[in-house]
Structures are given as C-alpha cells and as structure tokens.
Design goal:
Keywords: FAD, Flavoprotein, NAD, Nucleotide-binding, Oxidoreductase. It comes from Pseudoalteromonas luteoviolacea DSM 6061. Belongs to the class-I pyridine nucleotide-disulfide oxidoreductase family. This protein is an alpha/beta fold and about 475 residues long. The chain has three domains: about 1-145 and about 270-335, FAD/NAD(P)-binding domain, CATH 3.50.50; about 150-270, FAD/NAD(P)-binding domain; about 345-470, FAD/NAD-linked reductase, C-terminal dimerisation domain (Enolase-like, domain 1, 2-Layer Sandwich), CATH 3.30.390.30. Helix content is about 30%, strand content about 25%. The protein contains 13 helices and 22 strands. It has helices spanning about 15-25, 40-45, 50-65, 80-105, 160-165, 180-190, 210-225, 320-335, 365-370, 385-390, 420-430, 435-440, 450-465, and strands at about 1-10, 30-35, 110-115, 115-120, 125, 130-140, 145, 160, 175, 195-200, 225-230, 235-240, 245-250, 255-260, 260-265, 270, 305, 345-350, 355-360, 375-380, 400-405, 410-415. A hairpin with a 4-residue loop joins strand 4 and strand 5. The longest helix is centred in the N-terminal third of the chain and has 24 residues, at about 80-105. The chain is globular. The termini are far apart.
Length: about 475
C-alpha cells in the first residue's frame, strides 16, 4: 500500500472541490485532490447546462407554435428528437470538456483517482492502493439523485435526470415525479418537445416556492399548459408489457391507469457522504450522516475537517458551491487561522416558462423569524396587465416583495413571471447592499420594460410602510401599461 503525507486533501473534483483546491494552494503547496468518478462538474455534465440546452430547444418549438398569436402564420413545428438530443449531448460534452481541461491543467502529482474512506481523523485510504496522512481535509463529494424505494418497481424504466441527457431520441411519454426545480424544468421542456408528460408531486409544492400566493399561482399556470398535479395520489406502480404502468386519481377524482415509456424520478438529491467513513472521525454528524458545519467558515465543529458544495446539504447551487469551496479551501490552507468567508444574498431561479425567482429571505423564513408581530409588509404586482409583458405575450406572473416595518429595509421576494432570472439579480443586489424600499424607488426605471412591474410592487409595499402614497392606478408619468 502506497503511503503519502500532505497538508491538505480535497475529496472531490467538482465545482466546490476545484475551488477548495485552488484556494488551499494559496497557503500551502502540499495539496492533493482525490476524485472517485469522471471529471466534470454536476452542473456541466448532468445539471444546469444540459437542462438549459433542452429548455432552449423547447422554447424554440413553443415560439413557433404560438407565432400565430402575433399574426405570424406558421406550420405546426415538427420535432426531430434525434437532432434535439444530438445538440444537447454535443454541447453538453463541450461544456464538460472545458471542466476536464481545467482539471488536467493541474499538476498530475496532485491528482489521485479512487474512492476515499476515512480511517481516522488524519488518515484516508484510497481504494486498496494508497493511504494518505494529512493535517486538514475538505469534503466536496457532491450529491446524487434520491430515489424512493417504491419507484424501484419500475426497473429499467426508471430514470434520473442524468439519464435524460444521454438519450439518442425523445420518447413518446414520460411520467415525472417531483415538481421541484429539476422536475418542473424537464417536465415542461419535454412537453413542449411533443412528449406526453404527466408531472406528479405531493403536498402541493412546486419549484422552491414557499409563498402560498405565488405557489398557488404557479400551480394554476403550469396546470393550464400540461398535466400537473402537485398533490397526486398514485398507486400500483409496476412494469407491464415493457412499459411503466401506474394508477393515479385525476383531478376529477377518477382513477386512471396509464403506461409510460419512462418514469423520471426528480425527487431531490442526497449528499454523497454515506460511504466516506466519517463515522471513523471525531466530527459530529447529523441524523442523515452529514457533518454539522458552520456556514460562515465551513468548518465541521472545531475540527480540521471542512465541507463544501452539495455534500454540505446547505444550498445546492453552483455559485454557492464555488463560494463554499473558496471558504473551506482557504480555511483548510491557513488552519488554524479560521476566518468567516463571504456569503452572498440567497438567489434562485427556475428556468421554466414563466420563470420563477427567489431572493433574500423567503416567505417561510420571514414567517418563522417575525412570527405574528407584523414587523414586515408585503407588496405585490400582477404581470398579466403589465405593458412590456403583454407586448411579448409573456403576461403571466405575480410578484410579492417583503420589507421591514420601521426601517423600510428590503428583505426579499418570491415571484413567477417573465425575465425572472434577470429581475432576481437586481433584487439580490439590492438585498446585499441593504437598500431600503425608498432607495430602490429612487433608482431609474426605463419604459417600457418588465422591471416596471418591480417598481409597482415596490410602490405597493412603500405605501404599506407609510413611506409613500397609495399607488396611482393610472400613472401618466410612468408611461402607458407600466
């Protein structure tokens, strides 16, 4: 068995791991990185990039199909599933290639392939070939799809989002379980590409939304386009004649039995920490085996072990993984000089149509933090009659913004509507800069733009905060349809 000694070991070569490696290297040259699978981040290989490629194809088909609403007459689009998936795979491989190139530029002697297991607080074993003794560690092992046991009855007809991006052609039908970010994005995209899709969930939740007003609106809007039941009753799951078969109660209360080419389990992800031997270390573990870590330092208790990215089970987003990797790697590199790192304002976007955005404190957090004290106000706006949105026939959406009573501090927002990915950035910058609602209203708003809807929501909450007058229903200075 080969024996190695080093200062820092980074376990995992994804977004968080690469960031941790580079930052640890700023403090010590003795850093090793271990990877058990293929190089290439979750985002590039099976996450944000290939999903957006599929969504882009779906948006192109949807635009053609709805062009007659503008007076532009077209034929119904013909979907070449093989061509759609060929572009998805080709561009996906291109993005993955960039990541692989970046990893392969790192010194070869710093890179080790194999599965890692902690032997104790200072030793790792890599498969059956290497034992590494190190002073500090960063766990950046990512996550994997969670598959509830009952779904295993579908056998090889059960797929996860990873499998979708290796398809050679589009299937005829897919049942999607889980109306979260992945399920909603892929389900709607496949529907728009001509696949018969039914999207099932439990508890009424959709996307990451917590505001009941926005959640109810989203449920209504998506169900108008394709079959979405976020509080479904599904039973009798099995394979019959080479198809995935299930029985569900439709929205009229009638049982329906239907067969699908595939069942897509988009039922969340779990951190890859269960086979690392963390129980052999002194770090304190939560019930599901994830180390308890300080979100500002990414340090596990008072130990020399740090954690970052999806493995931390905190915020599973690429930019968060990069930030966590920076913090964990820097602290591992300069240990025991532990410092708080930059944690940015929470921001989330769902690339459905209409899009979903969330920034700052969400509704659930506000109700938990403020309770019934009435210490915050809610402003809102509908995008159904908003000028620029109607011009583009993108006038489906609703926004709720939250602000603190007394100070007028802008706290956050949840919304569904056009250009949510862009609006979310503007609002997140406002939260991070600790702007008040009056300060935000002093910013310029062009006409006609979708962002004028944001101004309306801000004016609405400003009036409730007693910082400004009630909204003028027909504001001539704003321009028509603002």
């Amino acid at each position: 068995m080969k024996q190695l000694e080093t200062d820092v070991v980074v376990i995992g070569a994804g977004t968080a791991g690469l960031s941790a490696y580079r930052n640890a290297k700023q403090y010590t040259p003795n850093v090793l990185m271990v990877e058990s699978g293929k190089y290439g981040t979750t985002c590039a290989r099976v996450g944000c990039m290939p999903s957006k490629l599929l969504i882009a194809a779906a948006e192109a088909a949807h635009s053609v199909e709805h062009a007659p609403q503008f007076g532009v007459l077209t034929e119904k689009p013909q979907i070449d599933g093989k061509a759609v998936m060929a572009r998805v795979r080709s561009e996906r491989d291109r993005f993955v290639g960039f990541v692989v190139e970046a990893v392969e530029e790192l010194p070869q002697e710093d890179r080790i392939i194999g599965h890692t297991k902690f032997l104790d607080d200072n030793r790792l074993q890599i498969d059956d070939h290497t034992v590494i003794t190190a002073k500090r560690f960063v766990v950046a092992t990512g996550s994997r799809p969670n598959i509830p046991p009952p779904f295993l009855a579908f056998g090889d007809k059960l797929i996860i989002n990873d499998d979708v991006f290796d398809w050679q052609d589009l299937p005829e039908s897919v049942a999607v379980f889980g109306p979260g970010v992945i399920g909603l994005e892929l389900g709607q995209a496949l529907h728009r590409l001509g696949v018969n899709v039914k999207l099932f969930g439990v508890g009424g939740n959709i996307g990451p939304l917590t505001d009941p007003v926005i959640r109810d609106y989203a449920n209504t809007v998506f169900a108008e386009e394709f079959y979405v039941d976020t509080d479904a009753k599904v039973s009798d799951m099995k394979v019959v004649d080479g198809k995935a078969q299930l029985t569900y109660v439709d929205k009229q209360g009638n049982p329906q039995t239907e067969q699908f080419d595939y069942v897509l389990a988009a039922t969340g992800r779990v951190p890859n920490v269960d086979n690392l031997g963390l129980e052999n270390t002194s770090v304190e573990l939560q019930d599901h085996g994830v180390p308890i870590a300080d979100p500002h330092t990414m340090q596990c208790g008072e130990s020399h072990i740090f954690i970052a990215g999806d493995a931390s089970d905190q915020i599973p987003l690429l930019h968060e993984a990069a930030d966590q990797g920076t913090i964990a790697g820097s602290n591992a590199g300069r240990f025991p000089d532990i410092r708080n790192g930059l944690r940015r304002t929470p921001i989330a976007a769902v690339f459905s149509d209409p899009q979903i955005g969330m920034v700052g404190d969400n509704y659930a957090q506000l109700t938990a933090n403020y309770g019934e004290c009435g210490c915050y106000e809610i402003g809102e706006v509908s995008f159904e009659n908003q000028g620029r949105s109607r011009v583009m026939l993108k006038n489906k959406g609703h926004m709720r913004v939250y602000a603190e009573q007394g100070t007028g501090l802008f706290l956050g927002a949840e919304f569904i509507g056009p250009a949510a990915e862009h609006i979310a950035h503007l609002l997140a910058w406002a939260v991070q800069n600790k702007m008040t609602v009056p300060q935000m209203l002093d910013m310029p708003f062009y006409h006609p733009v979708i962002e004028e809807g944001v101004r309306t929501a801000l004016r609405n909450v400003n009036a409730k905060l007693k910082f400004g007058p009630d909204i003028i229903q027909h504001c001539l200075e704003c321009g028509p349809g603002a």
